[in-house]
Amino acid sequence: MLRRRALTKDGACHTRADHTNYMLRKGLRKRKVQDEMTLKTLKTRKLRLASAAAVTAAATAVMFAAAALPSASARSAHAAAGAVLTMESSPETAVTQDFNPFDQASGAYAMGVDSLIYEPLMQFDLAQPTHAPYYMIATAYKWGSGGTSITFTIRSGVKFSNGSALTPTDVADTFTLLQNNADVNDAAIPITGATVSGQDVTITFSSSQYTNLENIANTYIVPNAIWSTVGDPGKYVDANPVGSGPYDFSSITAAGITLTANPDYWGTVNVPTVEFPIYASNTTVLSALTSNTLDWAGNFITGLKAAFITPSPSTHHDWFPGTQTNSIEPNLTKFPTDLLPVREAISLAISRAKIGAIGEAGLEPPATNASGLVLPGFAADLATPLKAKKYQLSPNANPKAADAVLNKAGYKLKGGYYYDGSKEIKLTIIDPAAYTDYAADDAIIADDLKAAHLDATFDGLAVTAWSSDIADGDFSLTQHWSNNGIVPYQFYNGWLNSKLITKPNSAGNFEQLSNKTIDKELTKLSSQSSPSGQVKALTPLEEFVAKDLPIIPTVYGAAFDEYNSSDFSGWPTPSNPYESGQPGSPQNEIVVLHLTPTS
């Protein structure tokens, strides 16, 4: 069978498996590239180029290229027939009529369309990790002994959009689908079985999954009557989707995709129509926002304040809650970043305030704690020892303190830079030149390190060259973003788990940490079922990161949210953070269901 192919942002083409690993290496983090496709937060966001053979294999699949922006008058005429929410989750250059909810490489998935057609068991609030979960298809859950099983109670009366009932069997069969087909089990959930008893579905695992509830419960549920006949679900072109979500697929054109409210939805839908216009770049997204032809977007956009917010502050808004941690990741297996005093000096020498204000355009605040936890969101998970002053990160550069650390360690100045004996402490920071914010960040970091007498330079690479280098450990320093989630395990597992080192295709732990004690602490954390137990198990991991600096936190990565409140109310805000606000799968559903037309 043909394998799906996808374009990376520098245009290199890879197989689906290659691209999935590439995106996992990217930590599921949206990066920002002006005038290019944007990679989205929370789940992988990828532009897929459908091959001619794939289109032939599914005659109903149609590809549409990016079109001109819809005019304001056209939108007004459409809106007159009923409230129309227009939203953008990812700039795209082509979209195929494929709504396979397990194909995270599809344009529809990247745009967030699937998240309104299909529905998971539960949803979560990344902006407020301690917020109670939203029960969707499930109404309750209970862990089995040791976290090696979980039982969900399935909501009664739920229907698929073709009118058939969604049953517990559909839920069990969906997890069996993931168990038997690794290409759709993107979270690599170690499923060993799924059984039904009345309205309950019990899923079993090969290891404790207490800290993996989000990935398990976020699984989209599909009708077994259809999906049991499609062959490999990862290669199925789902041109006419049948889901249980609040919206049905209505149409696809060169201008975009339209969904209409599902009359059989079990909940309440206040917005009758949702449109996903196709925009090829962040520039066209900004144009649509400023001309009021787009209600909701989620992008790093240069000049957003001046062009969008300032002219209409009463109706044009943005909100960028921190949901993850950006950091400098040093190679722990190579000189000189294998030396703790060097890592300590790097952390002291950098200006996190400049990185946030200049490199990140003021959208991402300085990290405040050496543990790496996003604060204040995970304040309840910060162990008491980590609250000490010595673990608080200064927003400002302190080259004198960096000098003191290096002098104490015995390094000597020669020609204005530090040497370890005859070897110069020379540092090269690599990141993609196309990641415009990271390129700016790294230029600031290099200048700060030079001020502390560390010979540092920034080398901007192509995306594929950079991803290859960090995956096989061929680098000195790089800047990267963390995983995100509702529990800190996701952060530390991505940073520290030695099992993620699989050269030349590492999927995390790019700094190449191999520490059996830390691996055991991660396993201990994953088996903790209570918040207090998790905090206790987190303490050694937080202390290790803060003291040993396997990663050096810089700023808190933002969930980007730009919206127009003229036509709809009920948006998430800092005072009502019921969701992060960044459009994307699966959290679109929660925001859209909170919205109400203003007239």
Structure description:
- With 599 residues, the chain is an alpha+beta fold.
- The protein has a domain at 322-558: Dipeptide-binding Protein, domain 3.
- It is built from 19 helices and 28 strands.
- The strands form 9 sheets. A 5-stranded mixed beta sheet has the order 23-22-24-18-25. Strands 5-15-14-13 form a 4-stranded mixed beta sheet, with helices on one face.
- Strand 19 (412-414) and strand 20 (417-420) form a beta hairpin.
- Helix 11 (340-349) packs antiparallel against helix 13.
- The longest helix has 18 residues, at 531-548.
- The radius of gyration is 24 Å and the shape is globular.
- The N and C termini lie far apart (51 Å).
- Residues 1-81 have low confidence and may be disordered.
| CATH homologous superfamily descriptor of the domain at 322-558 | Dipeptide-binding Protein, Domain 3
CATH class categorisation of the domain at 322-558: Alpha Beta
SS element count, helices = 19
Radius of gyration: 24 Å
Which ranges are low-confidence, i.e. pLDDT below 50, for 5 or more consecutive residues?
1-81
Strand content: 15-25%
What structural class results from the helix and strand content?
alpha+beta
Gross morphology: globular
Oligomer: single chain
Number of strands: 28
From the N-terminal CA to the C-terminal CA, the straight-line distance is: 51 Å
Biggest beta sheet attributes = 5 strands, mixed
CATH architecture level-2 label of the domain at 322-558:
Roll
| Overall pLDDT level | 85
Q: Please give the share of residues in helix.
A: 25-40%
Can you tell me the CATH topology of the domain at 322-558?
Dipeptide-binding Protein, domain 3
Strand order of the largest sheet: 23-22-24-18-25
